[in-house]
Amino acid sequence: MNTNRRRAPADDPPPPPRNNQSATPALDYVERGLIRFVTLFITLVFRVLWASNSNRQSMMGSAYGSRADDLERMVADLTDLSFEDDFYFPPEPSASQASGGGLSVQTAVGASGSSAAGGSSPSKGKGTQKVEPPQNAPSYIAPPPPAGQTGGRWYVVIVGLRTGIFTSWAEAGPYTQHQSGAVHCAFDNYQEAYNEFQSALLQGRVQTLPDIHGVLRNMMPRGG
């Protein structure tokens, strides 16, 4: 038996820990806490950035949607526009062949109203003045000349005691002379006279003046 084995002194340091265990448990606790804090901080920053990006995309989408809605409403408004009132053409007055070979045209309604044979009806003109059309005096239109006939002169009375197309100044003059506001013109071609009167009808310029001085009562009615 070997009795020379040296015994370790009582004040020798303790052997190192086994299994890689730390000698200071408090340090491990601090490290774990620091790691957890860093992880939570990174997670919080990521969530804030994600929320900010989501809000920005939402605002952009909302603005784009609003602009798209405005564009759709604008297109709908343009589609619903109607141009019927701006490009409305009134129908031409009806004309029929009279028994005497002439044309019977209705009196324009826009300026002085229409009057039928045997009676009169007062109506308002473009202004505030009321115009009383004379008795038995609808617009008279002389018949066109026979085919092949040359020469002649036609007088168009647009505003007067009686309106229409007449074949001489002797017929048209009494309806315009000494009448305030009377309008008449003369043509060497029947078709031109007819076109002028039709244009005046469509434009509402034909107007029958009131017979203040009783001129028509002393005249023989001419035409229908």
Helix content percent band? 25-40%
Outline: rod-shaped
The whole-number mean of residue pLDDT values reads 68
Instruction: Detail the poorly predicted runs.
Output: 81-136
Strand content: 5-15%
CATH class of the domain at 140-212: Alpha Beta
Biggest beta-sheet profile: 5 strands, mixed
CATH architecture designation of the domain at 140-212: 3-Layer(aba) Sandwich
Query: Termini, distance in Å?
Result: 169 Å
Question: How many extended strands?
Answer: 9
Q: Given the structure, what is the number of helices?
A: 3
The ordered string of helix (H) and strand (E) elements is HEEEEEEEHEHE
CATH topology group of the domain at 140-212: Ribonuclease HI, Chain A
Q: Can you identify the CATH superfamily of the domain at 140-212?
A: Ribonuclease H1, N-terminal domain
Output the radius of gyration.
Answer: 53 Å
* Class computed from helices, strands and strand pairing: alpha/beta
InterPro entries: Ribosomal_bL9/RNase_H1_N (IPR009027), RNase_H1_N (IPR011320), RNase_H1_N_sf (IPR037056)
Biased composition (Low complexity): 110-126
Biased composition (Polar residues): 94-109
Transmembrane segments: 33-50
Can you give a write-up of this model?
The chain is an alpha/beta fold. The protein has a domain at 140-212: Ribonuclease HI, Chain A, CATH 3.40.970. It contains 3 helices and 9 strands; from the N terminus they run H-E-E-E-E-E-E-E-H-E-H-E. A hairpin with a 5-residue loop joins strand 3 and strand 4 (130-131). It is rod-shaped and about 160 Å long. The termini are far apart. Residues 81-136 have low confidence and may be disordered.
